[in-house]
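Dear colleagues,

I hope this message finds you well. In preparation for our joint manuscript, I am sending the Acetyl-CoA C-acetyltransferase (Streptomyces armeniacus) sequence together with its predicted structure, so that both groups work from identical material. I would be grateful if you could confirm receipt.
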Amino acid sequence: MAEAYIVSAVRTPVGRRKGGLSHVHPADLAGYALETAVKRAGVDAGDIEDVILGCVDQLGAQSTNIARTAWLSAGLPEHVPGTTVDRQCGSSQQALHFAAQGVMSGTQDLVVAGGVEVMSLVPISSPAVVGEQQGFGTPYNSPGWTARYGTQEVSQFRGAELIAERWGITREAMEEFALTSHRRALDAQRAGAFDQEIVPFGSLDADEGPRADTSLEKMAGLKTLTEGGRITAAVSSQISDGAAALVVASEAAVSRHGLSPLARIHTMTVTGADPVLMLTAPIPATRQALKRAGLSADGIDQYEINEAFAPVVLAWLRELGIDPARANPLGGAIALGHPLGATGARLMTTLVHNLRRMGGRYGLQTMCEGGGMANATIVEAL
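The corresponding structure tokens are as follows:
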């Protein structure tokens, strides 16, 4: 089978809600990441064959195929097309899969994958809220859905609570995990671990999410999101703004353009699980990816799993027996933020650069997704 290589990977800083990126049009933010990724790769933008971006809440400024508008907003060639993907939180990880699959199929040689979300401008679940307000129904009230799953609440927040309950994960354990995420992110910032991957946007040159002033005592004082629950804002991913982009090349393109690959796409998988529990699919997706790759859990040097909520990662660690030190060593979305459509590409960008920085070989990325799904991607650093 033909190979697919990541030849550049960049991301903007992740901005806090109403922070340094909240005023930026999503097309301009994504366009900046796309343009920078192509320049970093060392290829002519006119040679790119497609642009695939992830974006979850495709409403207003993020509607009408933002992959296309972002590319054009950056002043890049009109003959290059674009398409926008929604696999919920895994949208830009799926964009990377589609780009790699296009290259591995032999039908394309250079594809850009990435994602964007400006949650300060387009709040989470905006399309569903607007649709319900306009009388267009909700995603979970069709006769077929209710016949299968009933009328119970379906949300990521309930899913997180159900996971904490099923795996017996205490609030205290989740808060300790969250504090570790912030400390790792702050240590990574001080060590310059993100310097190769972040491209400053305006005056913002670092992630705004990590909190040096947080503590277990402060976390313990927060109210739970639901009465009688265990989940608080402290153990949840931050509402954020950001964009990321990667250029994927075939072996022929690497040779023809004299490119220097950062990593090889080794294994890709996607799977589904219980859509009401919703956030457990990274467990079977990781197992499936490791089996397909012929690797053990210990054979992976670094894992990046999205910290949508602390119990998602804690249940995954417990089920798979993964060394916590290898998972999100630079912090995760609890500290760094989760700009929905951009996070998949952000995680891969961080994974590739840190593997190379630390001399690791194999990295695995996975993340839970609305509807009870998960992608898993294994890369080999070069």
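For the figure legend, we might mention the following. The CA atoms of residues 224 and 232 lie 4 Å apart. The beta strands are 4-11, 15-16, 50-54, 82-85, 110-118, 240-250, 263-272, 302-305, 362-369, 373-381.

With kind regards,
E.M.
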